[in-house]
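USER: Write out one fold?

ASSISTANT:
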Amino acid sequence: MEEKPATKEEKTKAKFYISKEDIMKLPLGGFEGKIQVLYTEDRAEQAARQLLRHSMLGFDTETKPVFRKGQKQNPIALIQLSTEDTAYLFRVNEMVMPHSLRKVLESPEILKIGQALKHEIMTMKKEFGVEGRGFVDLLDIAHKIDTGPKSVRGLSALFLGIRISKRMQVTNWERQRLSEKQKRYAATDAWTCLEIYRKLKQRGLMKDISRLGHR
């Protein structure tokens, strides 16, 4: 998810606004729970069965970046799903899509909260045949409640009071073994989306838009 600077309109009209300078003053935060990296279909299937018991999850994906103009985009390497205390990192570039993971992603009963999801949902359908349902897009919500900026980093600053690092965004997500920094970054992206949504609900900001962004 690319970080974009706040526009002039966001600065002057946004109901909830924080500057880049003020974000940098916030304490660095991130996911501190348990991280499970799933490399095999058997382990991934077991983990996804556990996720079927949840009603709400944080969601994100990671893809090996492309550095040459015109080069074909790489396939999704990682699908992240997070509960409040455990993040599951599915190495989908190394396995066939597990049956239970597909069920999680296609279930309208399990909310998957992410940011700027249109491309990711389309890509999962193209690459895995997944019909994404039950997705909630924080970008849609940010537009509705009027925030500036509207990125996960901005929303984390506004509603969680933390600054999340984006330093590991442009790394090789197809490497054989993910580094500890990559794991923590990937887990944080999914977990943060869940926590932002929970905080918005706690503050009563979702009461009038409870259905917005569901796919």
User: Anything to note?
Assistant: The chain has one domain: 8-202.
